[in-house]
Write a structure and sequence with these properties.
With 229 residues, the chain is α/β, with parallel strands linked by helices. It has 2 domains: 133 residues, Rossmann fold (3-Layer(aba) Sandwich), CATH 3.40.50; 84 residues, Orthogonal Bundle (DNA polymerase, domain 1), CATH 1.10.150. The protein is 47% helix and 12% strand. It has 9 helices and 6 strands. It has a 6-stranded parallel β-sheet with strand order 3-2-1-4-5-6, sandwiched between helices. Keywords: Hydrolase. It is an enzyme of class 3 (hydrolase). One of its GO terms (molecular function) is 5'-nucleotidase activity.
């Protein structure tokens, strides 16, 4: 089904274009080596990834701040794998993780091809809950910054997706209307429902293949966007 009325497309960044899990895993390998932390990276990541997702949910819901997220996700993971680690080292790892995260910039399969395809026909934008200083680096170092006319991040607005304020801010910044725009992201709660709740159309990048309501537009691979545009 072609969406012929669309002029502006808003993308999430992490887990949608930028392969967060792969880049994050490589960053942990690097900083553990730097800090001589000798643990199984596989075991660590198996516990860290769900813990991190839960912390981001708390962060979206304004129940914790950025510092608590950065420290807590590491503290809880080391506790879960029964590794005794000093607070100073947790803080050091937290800082090193942010500093080195953009050392790796793997994108999801099809990212450049779909951005090239869409770029000549639509105004492309980013709406992200990620930290401002890190997200800028991700866009620049992965060589996709030039595709996007505007970038809206949660720290700029003071709220996070799915809060309506961030979507409305992004629309104003882009000089776009809800009626002619669409949001594309992987997170059902933050990206899809957040957009739909302000009557902004949305497509779920459902690469994790969760069960969705049949009324939700979804894709399993980025190149499937060609079916809509």
């Amino acid at each position: 089904m072609k969406l012929n009325h669309i002029t502006d497309i808003f993308f999430d960044l992490d887990h949608t274009l930028w392969d967060f899990d792969k880049n994050s895993a490589l960053t942990f390998e690097k900083i553990f080596k730097m800090n001589q932390v000798q643990i199984s990276i596989t075991d660590f990541l198996a516990h860290y990834e769900p813990i991190n997702l839960n912390y981001w949910k708390l962060y979206r819901e304004e129940r914790i701040d950025k510092a608590s997220l950065r420290y807590g996700r590491l503290f809880d993971t080391f506790k879960a794998i029964n590794v005794d680690i000093h607070d100073d080292l947790i803080h050091q790892l937290s800082e090193d993780y942010i500093a080195h995260l953009t050392s790796y910039n793997h994108l999801f399969d099809g990212t450049i091809e779909i951005l090239d395809y869409l770029d000549s026909k639509y105004n492309l934008h980013i709406i992200t809950n990620g930290f401002e200083e890190v997200q800028h680096g991700k866009l620049k170092k992965s060589n996709i910054q030039a595709y996007f006319k505007t970038v809206t991040n949660s720290e700029m607005v003071g709220v996070k997706k799915p809060n309506p304020l961030i979507f409305n801010h992004a629309l104003r910044l882009a000089k776009a209307t809800k009626e002619n725009s669409i949001m594309i992201g992987d997170n059902y709660e933050a990206d899809v429902l957040g957009a739909l709740n302000i009557d902004l159309d949305a497509i779920c990048f459902n690469y994790h293949k969760v069960k969705l309501d049949q009324n939700i537009k979804s894709i399993n691979h980025l190149l499937e966007l060609k079916n809509y545009f």
